[in-house]
Design goal:
heterotetramer; A alpha/beta (284); B alpha+beta (92); C alpha/beta (812); D alpha/beta (383); A: 284 residues; alpha/beta; Rossmann fold; eight-stranded mixed β-sheet; 11 helices; 8 strands; disordered N terminus; B: 92 residues; alpha+beta; Alpha-Beta Plaits; two-stranded antiparallel ribbon
């Protein structure tokens, strides 16, 4: 029992070495799913025994934007909507780095939507994990690009009349080589998916549906994280490689699983091959 | 072959199921209760005490029921709970 | 209208030329019937161009004669008055065919079994009856139509339901013959009951040792597709063309599984292993036993921590090097097209906890014979050591109690479960083999050691000192401290009470039909006997065929059997299925329904009464569609149709009405018209004849394939024509050869009785009789009984009935 | 015209945009992100061909916002990075220029100025972004901006811009105009070793000791890059020397923002460059920059021929503003003339520094730059 007596020391959480202790506890509310996503991410990194020096985590603005700061690795917290654009510079400048963007639905798909579709189109080898909480949490719960029809938010007091993005469909249509969707209740599958995403070539995308009980939930009769998790449990159906176009999120059904998993040469690979080609010719 | 299974299997005692040691970092808990709700063997419950965050952290009902699936560790948004398997010496 | 159609269809066709042949059958017929006179009489009947009598019409000369006449005299109908059509109809049909006459233009009058033999001492009555029978036959013959038997192609694939030793044997036989076989097993592995048994009697082979090779053959056979952990959920179609839906339940482990067993080491959930009768544990992820086929592991989702659909525990996933765990697996429905089906679903064992006096389920040391098999088995939970559950000690005194759940309606089932006696004897010898000192008592009712080598084994057991006590214990009393057992009962040989103490008691439990037999019965439209086991088409001559064509039985599904019999029957079933598939086609007797579209109102009544789902209602076209190949040929649909839009080939309304009219032309008031189904009642009547049971000669039997064919209008016609009484006779309920068609017979007769009562008629004049082929006596005595009744029927009653049913007189 | 895979050398005849691109390569730039826009497009086009040859990265992003963000990303990953645009694109970049300032990401932004506001006159020159260059992004900050007035300077000052931005970890702006951008002239490029190249300061402590935003005495923190083993955090939020957000601390806000300004202000003398022509005895001083300064030079010469004591102060560094130089000359001068291709931007800085000395402003919009005669006329009028 010798080891036990050592690890009963409270701070010795097995994955605490991946976190910037100085930044803990994180700013997220009780029942928020961002912590779960962070937890899954570091577990994935741990299981893959990744070299943290070769990892770069970039995030934008919003609650989940703080993630970059919490992970004990190269991290950058950009302006609103620009993490993918920033990550593009990093990945191209040093293709040996594993560049992961962890950000929110508003950051990535409203203000940053243009960067997302173009990075996917280029098949640039950056990995994007989107925490989808259906609204702008940090600014107090405004309507966003993923807010479900009829949902109440601080800016849709009469119910949302905008059609939300179906993120997995958008990602697949834009050319992502790996597309998956899980909820924060599917922690094991989410972790496995993240491991896969970290090992794949090209642009990869995971939508992690995440409870926002304090803000979104408060407006929509799910006041606790548990209630939102129970919704995920009730509504989610695991269907691998189903048609992403048919995977809209409704109160009744959330199709989760992998939607796309293909091989396609990444932008940086083609670019550096081209550079090598040109210089070979030059040498002749 | 539906046979009524009413006996305790003869080799029940021989099977070694993992013994757990659950660590709750009380003051890091924000009281979302995910660990309590989704524990498959219902090892945890909400305690009365109030922690640094002003919430009721989980409390262990019966550690022996824990099978070290570690779902609580995986689902905790606040890194406030983890489980280690007892490296038991002979006898345990 | 239907009649008119018949007439039209005959217009313009050449004139009817009937030839009648009255057979003496040596003195069998001529002994009590004046055949010459019958022939003379026949010659006077309409359409008859010649009538002859001869000694043996079935003899070569007799047949030659018919052939020549057909050619010379341009006969286009042939009537032979001789024995039962059940005996010689095929013979004479062939004769006609040889002479170029369609075999459906042949008709028979049964003047032996149903006349000469049953009226041995009433020559006059017999002769009169014979004339009537010939007249009826000629009347029907005149209306006979040539018919072509339809041919149905047979898919050369077989479905076998159940992967016990019977299913395995049948699968291998068919697969080796070269047919594609789908073997569906409900459990995660094939092997069934035999895989769980330690040794087999009487040879004492190691059961799994001889079964395992066959199991892996099934697993590897290129012609066999094994669908384990699967269930048949839907069967459509008919012989040669079954469309089957099989539900493949998810294993949550893919084929990549190498059975390395690493997953069970980490799986934190345990449960009793069904395979070991609950004496050993298994994990949530497991393989039922070492030799399982398929060897792929399976996850029991009822107990797995991830049952909620969320992966809470991923220990097995992490432990699996081949990454063959897949919690996303979903049930899938596989659709198969097969030509034949073999039902080998086996049997369940009787649950003795329903017998409070033996205390099974309460007293730890009272075990079942199945639990014994696992205990004595080297691969079992106790490593082959016979231990008593209470203290894991090897028992010194062991009692076997026989017939637990068998041979007693009160305490289980009436029938003998067939295997228990020898199994106990085998078990007792196994104990003696390992622990010779053990005192063994067998409490029995009778010891049934009928099989090859059984008696020797029984003798050996006695020689080894196993004591056999006749008389089952009335009760077991449990000694709570020592967990010993007191057996109290009467030794019926010595007529004395016994009270004996044992360390352990083994209940020799019987076999019973599987709980899910009903489902299979419904899916395949099969019939079952009173015991609940499946009923074969013929107990003697078609022991492995089901009443539904193209379906066969193997193993305990049909009745309790030991391994040897199961295997034998399995090979037989395989052979029977093989014959069909080898032919590649099957011909269906042309006794299927004909529909008159113009009369059909698409009411759908016929579809409801068809036990074969051979009639479907096409709502768009507002008409019915008949799948001849699926039709069993009972004619119930024709009887049900209120609009004359359906009739049955070769048993048309007109033909039957013509027979009735023939009977009732003279002296109807004294006659009984009896409608007998071909399989039971008519055969019963024949049996009465064969056994020379004498009964009054005033009955005239009209043969239908099934009593379900008897339409109310036939009975009305008979009464309208003034008969004294009508008898409708068929198979016993549940024994119907057309699944359950005679159930409609009953409903119709009951309805008719009501009608008669409302009309103030004596309902006794219509009688319903259930008589099996073996119940000649029952048939004869019914006729006696009715004779007495008929004599009481007053002329005015007859007149009343005539009036009431006047309307029925329309038509031919 | 250029030797593949190497930095250009020798004498060449080229246009300003190309000279700028070659300057970047000479300065060691290995990353260019941009978006097509007149009159800066030729820089992108030229680099799309040249970057691969020297193993550098060229990428055309989906817009200037993305381009600027990518440039910061590349810079943080250790590459010298540049972006080239004109007015509209420059506006789009402003937020991320602020991010570069806040996270102290060295990078060079080329703005080849055209006529504005909005889409304005894409093909005509302007000097209308001068104030935007200093004040374009929200919040307080100091920045460096240089104004080339010849194709040769397009080459030289691009290198200078890189050196300054690497030295002070600040985005540095090359404020060119349509004329210098498109004009063809002789460019003399010295051999590699003769060109002065500055690289950013690297940490001289082990990773565990490294504080990404702890400045040295020159107020500039040494810079580590992603993937070098110093795993650190950077954010656009107000942050302490660990790079950790401090969103509610006034001390941190004050010390950070003040340092970001002071590292430029306190080093202004090292940064600022001007060209002085005939100022010793000048009564009238023309203060000009960019292409306009060349007309001003000949105007000053003509004035001297006509006996007017005129001189020229050409501003090479616009930001930080060379206020000392202006103030000094203002003391002796009787009048000052500031010709600009705008409605009066830098003239205000001149007035601020010139105190009582009268300053005449000469505006020009929507056509070619001022002619020497126009400026000469203004000189005459000023006395």
């Amino acid at each position: 029992m010798v080891e036990e007596t050592l690890i009963t020391e409270e701070t010795a959480h097995p994955i605490s070495k991946f976190l910037r202790e100085a930044m803990m506890p994180h700013i997220w509310c009780s029942g928020c799913g961002n912590g779960v996503i962070l937890n899954c991410f570091v577990h994935a990194v741990d299981e893959l025994q990744m070299d943290l020096n070769k990892l770069v985590v970039v995030s934008g603005i919003g609650c989940i934007g703080r993630t970059a700061g919490y992970i004990n690795t190269n991290s950058f917290h950009t302006t609103h909507g620009r993490p993918i654009a920033f990550a593009t510079g990093v990945k191209l400048a040093n293709p040996n780095l594993e560049v992961v963007v962890i950000s929110g639905d508003g950051d990535l798909f409203a203000i940053g939507g243009n960067h997302f579709i173009h990075a996917a189109r280029r098949n640039l080898g950056i990995k994007v994990i989107c925490a989808n909480n259906f609204n702008y949490g940090m600014t107090g719960g405004q309507q966003g690009p993923t807010t479900p029809l009829e949902a109440l938010t601080s800016t849709t007091p009469y119910g949302n009349i905008e059609h939300p993005f179906n993120l997995v469909h958008l990602a697949a249509a834009s050319g992502a080589t790996y597309v998956a969707r899980w909820t924060t209740l599917h922690v094991r599958r989410l972790t496995q998916s993240i491991k896969k995403l970290l090992q794949k070539e090209g642009f990869c995308f995971i939508e992690a549906i995440s409870p926002c009980p304090e803000i979104y939930g408060r407006y929509n009769k799910m006041r606790t994280g548990l209630e939102m998790m129970e919704w995920f449990k009730k509504a989610s159906v695991v269907e691998h490689f189903s048609d992403p176009a048919k995977a809209e999120i409704t109160p009744e059904k959330i199709v989760v699983g992998e939607f796309v998993d293909m091989k396609k040469p990444s932008y940086e690979k083609l670019l550096h091959e081209q550079i090598a080609q040109i210089n070979k010719k030059a040498g002749e | 072959m539906p046979v009524r299974l009413w006996r305790t299997p003869l080799d029940t005692k021989k099977v070694k199921l993992p013994k757990a040691e659950i660590h709750i970092i009380k003051d890091q808990c924000k009281g979302c209760n995910f660990c309590i709700q989704y524990c498959p063997t219902k090892v945890l419950e909400e305690s009365e005490e109030i922690n640094a965050m002003g919430v009721h952290p989980p409390r262990i009902i019966d550690e022996s029921k824990c099978v070290v699936c570690s779902f609580c560790t995986a689902v905790c948004p606040d890194f406030a709970i983890y489980v280690v398997e007892k490296q038991c010496k002979e006898g345990c | 209208m239907a009649e008119n159609k018949e007439l039209e269809s005959r217009e313009g066709s050449e004139e009817i030329r009937v030839g009648v042949y009255v057979c003496h059958c040596g003195l069998n017929i001529a002994g009590s019937v004046d055949c010459e006179e019958v022939a003379k009489f026949a010659a006077t009947l309409p359409h008859v161009v010649l009538a002859k009598d001869n000694r043996y019409t079935c003899s070569d000369q007799g047949q030659e004669l018919i052939k020549n006449d057909i050619k010379e005299h341009k006969l286009n109908r042939v009537v032979v008055a001789s024995c039962s059509p059940r005996l010689h109809e095929p013979t004479f049909r062939k004769t006609c065919e040889d002479a170029g006459l369609n075999k459906y233009l042949f008709e028979m009058a049964n003047i032996r079994e149903q006349c000469s033999w049953v009226h041995l001492y009433d020559q006059e009555g017999a002769t009169e009856k014979a004339k009537d029978l010939v007249k009826m036959a000629v009347a029907k013959a005149a209306l006979l139509q040539p018919a072509e038997e339809i041919e149905v192609p047979i898919t050369r694939k077989a479905l076998i339901i159940g992967g016990g030793v019977a299913g395995i044997q049948a699968a291998l036989d068919l697969a080796d013959t070269g047919y594609r076989v789908y073997l569906v097993e409900k459990q995660p592995s094939i092997g069934g009951m035999m895989a769980r048994i330690d040794k087999t009697f009487p040879t004492m082979d190691c059961s799994i040792c001889i079964l395992a090779p066959k199991m892996s053959d099934v697993g590897h056979h290129p012609n066999i597709e094994l669908l384990a952990n699967s269930e048949v959920v839907d069967v459509k179609g008919y012989i040669g063309n079954f469309h089957v839906k099989v539900l493949k339940k998810p294993r949550y482990v893919t084929k990549d599984c190498s059975a390395c067993d690493e997953c069970t080491k980490v799986c934190p959930v345990i449960a009793p292993n069904e395979f070991d009768a609950g004496l050993a544990i298994r994990h949530a992820i497991y393989t039922p036993f070492a030799q399982a086929v398929p060897s792929t592991y399976i996850i029991d989702m009822n107990i797995c921590l991830n049952k909620e659909g969320i992966i809470v525990c991923d220990k097995c996933i992490k432990a699996c090097e081949r990454q063959s765990i897949n919690f996303e697996m979903k049930p899938e429905t596989v659709e198969l097209d097969v030509g034949t089906i073999i039902v080998a679903i086996g049997a369940d064992v009787f649950d003795p906890s329903t017998l409070p006096n033996y205390g099974y389920g309460k007293y730890p040391n009272v075990i079942t014979s199945l639990e014994f098999e696992r205990l004595i088995n080297a691969g079992g939970p106790s490593g082959g050591h016979l231990i008593r559950p209470s203290d894991m000690q090897i028992p010194k005194r062991v009692a076997f109690i026989q017939c637990v759940g068998s041979r007693s309606e009160k305490n289980g089932k009436l029938y003998c479960s067939n295997v228990c006696c020898m199994n106990t004897i085998k078990d007792s010898l196994l104990i003696k083999e390992h622990w010779p000192e053990t005192e063994i008592y067998v409490f029995y009712v009778d010891i049934r050691a009928y099989g090859k080598g059984f008696e020797d084994l029984y003798k050996r057991a006695r020689k080894e000192g196993v004591k056999f006590v006749r008389g089952l214990p009335a009760e077991i009393i449990h000694d709570k401290k020592a967990h010993n057992l007191w057996l109290i009962g009467e030794n019926t040989l010595q007529k004395e009470l016994y009270k004996m103490n044992f360390d352990m008691a083994i209940l020799s439990v019987g076999l019973e039909p599987r709980k899910d037999s009903e489902i299979i019965q419904r899916l395949l439209t099969l019939s079952r006997t009173q015991d609940g086991f499946f009923m074969e088409a013929h107990p003697k001559l078609k022991p492995v065929d089901a009443a539904t064509a193209g379906i066969f039985f193997a193993g305990c599904a049909e009745a309790p059997k030991d391994i040897k019999d199961s295997v034998t029957q399995a090979s037989a079933a395989a052979a029977r299925a093989g014959i069909l598939m080898a032919k590649g086609k099957v011909t269906v007797e042309a006794i299927t329904p004909i529909s008159y579209v113009e009369n059909c109102t698409a009411c759908g009544l016929c579809t409801k009464v068809c036990s074969y789902n051979a009639i479907t209602l096409n709502k768009e076209l507002k008409r019915i569609e008949i799948i001849e190949a699926a039709c069993g040929g009972c004619g119930t649909c024709a009887a049900e149709c209120p609009f004359g839009a359906l009739t049955q080939n070769h048993f048309t309304d007109e033909q039957i009405l013509a027979q009735i009219d023939a009977v009732t032309e003279h002296g109807a008031e004294n006659k009984i018209v009896a409608f007998c189904c071909n399989w039971c009642a008519y055969a019963g009547a024949d049996f009465a004849g064969v056994s020379r049971m004498q009964y009054p000669p005033n009955v005239r039997i009209i043969r239908t394939m099934c009593s379900g064919r008897v339409a109310p209008k036939f009975i009305e016609r008979a009464f309208a024509r003034g008969v004294a009484a009508v008898l409708v006779a068929g198979c016993h309920p549940g024994d119907c050869h057309y699944i359950n068609a005679n159930y409609h017979t009953q409903k119709r007769v009951e309805r008719f009785w009501k009608k008669m009562e409302q009309q103030g008629l004596n309902k006794e004049r219509l009688q319903l009789l259930w008589a099996s082929a073996a119940e000649g006596e029952r048939f004869a005595s019914k006729i006696h009984e009715m004779k007495v009744m008929v004599e009481k029927v007053a002329p005015e009653e007859v007149e009343n009935a005539k009036k009431v049913f006047e309307k029925a007189l329309g038509g031919s | 015209m250029n030797k593949k895979g190497t930095v250009l050398e020798g004498v060449h005849f080229m246009n300003g945009d190309v000279a700028c691109a070659e300057g970047a390569i000479a300065a060691g730039c290995k990353f260019f992100a941009g978006y097509p826009i007149t009159p800066a497009t030729e820089i992108a086009e030229h680099l799309s061909q040249r970057m691969p040859e020297i193993g550098g990265i060229y990428i055309q992003m989906e817009d200037e916002i993305a381009s600027m963000a990518a440039v910061i990303g590349a810079s943080y990953t250790g590459l010298k990075a540049m972006i080239a645009t004109s007015g509209p694109g420059f506006s789009l970049m402003q937020e991320n220029i602020g991010l570069a300032v806040m996270t102290e990401a060295p990078c060079v932004i080329v703005d080849v100025m055209r006529g504005g506001p909005s889409t304005g006159q894409p093909t005509l020159p302007g000097q209308q972004d001068v104030m935007q260059a200093k004040w374009g992004s929200h919040g307080d900050y100091e920045i460096i901006a240089l104004a080339p007035s010849s194709v040769q300077e397009m080459f030289d000052l691009t290198i200078e811009a890189f050196n300054l931005s690497e030295t002070y970890r600040v985005p540095t702006i090359l404020l060119a105009d349509e004329v210098v951008g498109h004009m063809w002239e002789k460019v003399v490029i010295p051999t590699g070793e003769k060109i002065k190249i500055v690289n950013r300061k690297r940490p001289n402590v082990p990773p565990e000791k490294y504080l990404p935003f702890m400045p040295d005495d020159d107020l500039v923190p040494p810079m580590a890059c992603f993937g070098e083993g110093f795993s650190f955090h950077a954010t656009g939020l107000t942050h302490d020397e660990h790079g950790y957000p401090q969103t509610s601390s006034s001390e941190v806000q004050q010390s950070l923002v003040n340092r970001l300004c002071d590292k430029i202000r306190k080093n202004a003398d090292k940064i600022i460059r001007v060209e002085e022509v005939a100022l010793e005895d000048a009564d009238v001083v023309v203060v000009a920059y960019g292409i306009v300064a060349r007309a001003a030079l000949s105007a000053v010469r003509k004035a001297r021929e006509k006996g007017i004591m005129a001189g020229l102060l050409r501003l090479i560094t616009l930001w930080p503003f060379p206020e000392k130089h202006v103030a000094k000359i203002a003391k002796q001068a009787k009048a000052m003339v500031v010709p600009e291709m705008n409605c009066g931007q830098l003239v205000r800085e001149v007035e601020r520094s010139a105190k009582e000395t009268p300053v005449a402003f000469l505006s020009k919009l929507g056509e070619d730059p001022h002619t020497p005669m126009e400026i000469l006329e203004a000189i005459r009028r000023s006395i």
